[in-house]
Write a structure and sequence with these properties.
The chain has 176 residues and is mostly helical. The protein has 7 helices and 4 strands. Among the domains are: 86 residues, Winged helix-like DNA-binding domain superfamily/Winged helix DNA-binding domain (Arc Repressor Mutant, subunit A); 34 residues. A hairpin with a 2-residue loop joins β2 and β3.
Length: 176
C-alpha cells in the first residue's frame, strides 16, 4: 500500500476533525437537523425490517459484535475497509444472545426470538449453539448496498447542514 493510500495518522485526523463551533447558540438548529436525520434513518430501518426495529437493533448488534474488535487489527482493517469486501463467516467473531441483550438493552428472550427470525430471513447464520454471525455477502447484496448508500447520504446531509449552520467547524481549516 502506498503512503497515499495509508489511513491518516491520529494527529492528522485530529487536525481535520469536526469540532463543536457554535453548538450552544445553535442547539435548536442541531436538534432539528438531528431529528430530521434520525427520522430518515429510522424510516429506512423500519422499511428494511417490515416495521420491526428490534430486528434491526439485533442484526446491528451482531454485525458490530462480529467485526468491531477485528477492525482494530491493521491488516484486517485494510483488507475489509470497503463494504465491497466480503467478510466470510469464519472471519467473524460470533455473538451470543446474552452479549446481544447486554449491548442492546433488550430482554434476552426478545433477542432470542429476533435471532431466530433473522436466521429465517437469511441475515444471520448460526455456526454453533450461541454463536451467531452475519451471513457472508449480505452487505454486498443490492438491497443492503442501496440501504448503506441512503444512510451515507443522510449522514452527509446532517454533517453538511451542521457545518453550514455553524454548529460544527473543521478544527484547523479544511484538509488539502
Amino acid at each position: 500500500m502506498s503512503d497515499r493510500q495509508r489511513p491518516p495518522t491520529e494527529a492528522a485526523n485530529a487536525s481535520r476533525a469536526l469540532r463543536s463551533h457554535r453548538l450552544h447558540e445553535n442547539s435548536r438548529i442541531f436538534a432539528l437537523k438531528f431529528a430530521i436525520f434520525y427520522q430518515e434513518i429510522t424510516r429506512l430501518q423500519r422499511a428494511m425490517f417490515n416495521g420491526d426495529l428490534d430486528l434491526f437493533i439485533v442484526a446491528g448488534a451482531i454485525a458490530v459484535g462480529s467485526i468491531e474488535s477485528r477492525m482494530r487489527d491493521r491488516d484486517f482493517h485494510d483488507t475489509y475497509a470497503s463494504l465491497e469486501s466480503v467478510i466470510g463467516e469464519e472471519m467473524q467473531r460470533g455473538c451470543n444472545a446474552s452479549s446481544i441483550a447486554d449491548a442492546t438493552g433488550l430482554p434476552r428472550e426478545t433477542v432470542r426470538r429476533r435471532i431466530k427470525r433473522l436466521i429465517e430471513m437469511g441475515i444471520v447464520v448460526r455456526r454453533a449453539t450461541g454463536d451467531y454471525v452475519i451471513r457472508a455477502g449480505l452487505v454486498q447484496s443490492e438491497t443492503y448496498s442501496r440501504l448503506f448508500g441512503q444512510l451515507s447520504d443522510a449522514v452527509l446531509r446532517l454533517v453538511n447542514d451542521c457545518v453550514e449552520e455553524q454548529v460544527f467547524a473543521v478544527a484547523n481549516g479544511w484538509p488539502k
